[in-house]
Prior knowledge:
Elements: E1 3-8, E2 21-22, E3 25-32, E4 37-47, E5 50-59, E6 69-74, E7 76-87, H1 94-141, H2 149-197, E8 201-211, E9 215-225, E10 228-239, E11 244-255, E12 261-269, E13 286-290, H3 298-316, H4 322-325, E14 333-335, E15 340-342, E16 349-359, E17 361-366, E18 374-381, E19 391-397, E20 400-407, E21 415-422, E22 426-438, E23 447-460, E24 466-473, E25 476-477, E26 483-490, E27 504-511, E28 516-528, E29 532-534
Parallel strand pairs: 2-5, 3-12, 10-19, 13-25, 17-24
Antiparallel strand pairs: 1-6, 3-4, 4-9, 5-8, 6-9, 7-8, 10-11, 11-16, 12-14, 12-15, 13-29, 17-18, 18-21, 19-20, 22-23, 23-28, 24-27, 26-28
Amino acid sequence: MRKMAFVLAGLLLPAAVAPAVEIESEIKEVTVYTDRAQVTRSGAVELPAGVSTVAFPLLPPGLRDESVRVRAHGPGVITGTRVRKVFLETDRRVEVEELRRRLESLRDERKEFDDELEAVGLQRKFVSSIQSSVAETTSRDMLHRPPAPDEWEGVLEFIGASTGRLAARARRLEAERRELDRRIEAAEKELRRLETARGREGKSVEVTVDSGEPSRWQFELSYQAPNAGWRPSYDVRVRRADGSLDLAVMGEVRQATGEDWENVDLVLSTARPAIWGRPPRLSPWHIGLRRPAAAEAPRERALYMARQAFDDEKAIAAPPETAEARRFEGVSTFHFPRPQSVPSDNEYHGLVASRLTTPARFELEAFPHLVDHVYLKARLTNDWGFPLLPGRANLFLGPDFVGNTHLQYLAVGEETSVFLGVDEEVVVKRELVSEKADTGGLLRRGTAWREVAWRITVSNLKETPAAVKVFDQLPVSRDPDVKVELKDSRPAPDDCGELVLPGLICWELELEAGEERAIEYEFRVEFPRDREVEGL
Length: 536
């Protein structure tokens, strides 16, 4: 009756055992975490009755000894395991040595191309010098005797034919040299991969078993290897016609463990895990009274600078966005339905983990104080059963690629907004209408003021209606002697309720197809007439 044995790494081998039997094993499954990978190998070997040692050779040198696990199916038990550091012999590096010789030959061929191109260059210079000397000689000879057409024709034919032939040869050599450079680059990349995968240093896992009878044993070895990881990325495709988004969830996997993963069962796990295309953020627009340098005492100036520094520090030390501070309550995994291959080249390879379609509400937002564009935004809810991890996203409007953005962490059931780049069919423009100032007088007890009027124009070039939120801002006073007032706004501002920012004003516009609407507003700033306002 066969039994299954399971043992952890670190058990001591018996003092005397037979020579180790090397087992041929293949990588069957790999679980990739954000900072490492767990590799599972399997293989079978015939063993006699009694004590035998089975060796898994040529394992990567970065293998973590404490992570080794061994399962065995056979008529007996595992009595010990050991992880050994080994140094590979020269005859196991034949592939590397052959590639080095081929690379050396390619580089020698590259030097031959350089020499030949240099020779062609000298020939072209010589023909060019003949052309110049012929022109000078001919001009001089024409003063003494008439030119001979046969001589001219022969010289011109020689110069023309030589110039064309040498130019064509130079083009051919340069094209062949570029192709050779690509072959050299590919060979160098392959050499780096092989040297990483087949360095002179490696590890071997030796397993000692006590078999009750001659039999074929099945072994499964798993271990963790560094220099591997994955990161999420996304393709977001907008389908405004039916109000939905197509979301392709991808895992970009890289590894330099020293062994290629070929046709393995690949699992991506979030366990132990460690914007372009969106509008810029508005910041409070602060104004205040400028303090005359001559009137400030050193201590007063120092206190003022300290207060400014404290305000800046509070802004920098503010809590990060919620997505960055989240802690995962569970673990999400992505198991690919088909075998995958990832070479040990330390480059990212994109693999599609899931394709989803979700309802979305599309909105347009404009920030004309900062940019002359209108941005498309989608609101969506995570109803997919697993959290959405932070990652880069490629944006598509229909078949067209329109840019990149960054998706934040999104828990199951949580709602978020995704900016999808600029909507070219809605145009916004902001222009100064008027600016007035009064330095104040006796009747106003020394109060000065400035009034500024702006006009924002929004044009809908679509053939369908468009709802646009327009954000702008008023200056915010940090000084009690400076007062800011919104004198007039047509239409009146709305309570958009999304951005909580001092001085923020917002309008919600419903535009018909082809319609243009204007927003006009004016604000007033009052301040002591003997002081100067900065930041306005």
